[in-house]
Amino acid sequence: MLTHSLIPKLRTLKLSGMADTLDHRAQTAQQDSLAPLEFFALLLDDELERREQNRLRRRFRDSKIDETKTLNRFDFAAVPQVPKTRMADLALCRFVERGENVLFAGPTGAGKSHLAQALAHAAIKHGFQAWFQPTHTLLASLHAARADGSYPRVFKRLIPIDVLLLDDFGLLPLSPPTVEDLYEIIRERYEKRSIGLTSNRAPEEWSEIFGNPLLASAALDRLTHHAHVITITGNSYRQKRNKKNSGTLPPKSE
Q1: Whole-number Å distance between alpha carbons of 104 and 247
Q2: For the chain, what are the domain ranges?
Q3: φ, ψ at 132 (rounded to 5°)
Q4: pLDDT tens digits, residue range 137-187?
Q5: Concatenated DSSP letters of the chain
Q6: Which of 102, 155, 204, 221 matches a 20 to 30 Å C-alpha distance to 227?
């Protein structure tokens, strides 16, 4: 009965982790003759675990990544050009600690977005914050923020994110204002926070995307300095996966 009377109080104090396991821990303490401090330490561990799991769920929700896109679910056999050992090393997230960038280039459907999100997934697991956005969507939101006066606030929120993933860089043309915004993002994050970038254009073509030689030179110099560049060639990973999966589907009933 004592534990039952404590549960509402624990929930009022927002200690749901302790409330959820109180009965179980009380039984364990009695069976194992635990000292009061040992019993209390177990309850604290439960509360800390609950809070960490909640933080992890929030990080994944806020990141906009697809949680199914992990390295374990990437078919490296379908794209042998992707260095599996190197990806495993990047998944340790030392590049995040050093503020280094990871840049993926390759044809449409080559698995670039999957790999970028897999690294973001690993970063979140390591306690970092990540955010995944198509490049044109992010820059369009900044352009709209200029119109309603929220630009400083919106831009400021981008800088402290540990891993900012810009997907499909170069897929759509950039207007002069958005080119300037992209340059400012790269400049502000340089050597402090990591950028992940995917593009179906070869790295030597990226300067053309900016349409401004001076900004292109300044931006790409910072973007590629201390960067891990992974270039994927060959046929579409997505199509290979589709063909592989199609062979495992049961035939349609007649």
Answers
A1: 29
A2: 2-63, 71-241
A3: -115, 125
A4: 999 999 999 999 999 999 999 999 999 999 999 999 899 999 999 999 999
A5: -HHHHHHHHHHHTT-HHHHHHHHHHHHHHHHTT--HHHHHHHHHHHHHHHHHHHHHHHHHHHHT--TT--GGGS-TTT-TTS-HHHHHHHTT-HHHHTT-EEEEE-STTSSHHHHHHHHHHHHHHTT--EEEEEHHHHHHHHHHHHHHT-HHHHHHHHSS-SEEEEESTTSS---HHHHHHHHHHHHHHTTTSEEEEEESS-GGGHHHHHS-HHHHHHHHHHHHTTEEEEE--SS-HHHHHHHHHHTTSPPPP-
A6: 155
CB atoms < 10 A from the CB of 17, how many? Answer: 21
Give tens-digit pLDDT for 4-42.
Answer: 788 888 888 899 888 889 988 888 898 999 999 999 999
What are φ and ψ of residue 18, in 5° steps? Answer: -75, -40
**What's at 206, amino acid-wise?**
W
Q: Residues of 187-197 as b/e, b for ≥16 C-beta within 10 angstroms?
A: eebbeebbbbb
Q: Say how far apart CA 173 and CA 18 lie, in whole Å.
A: 53
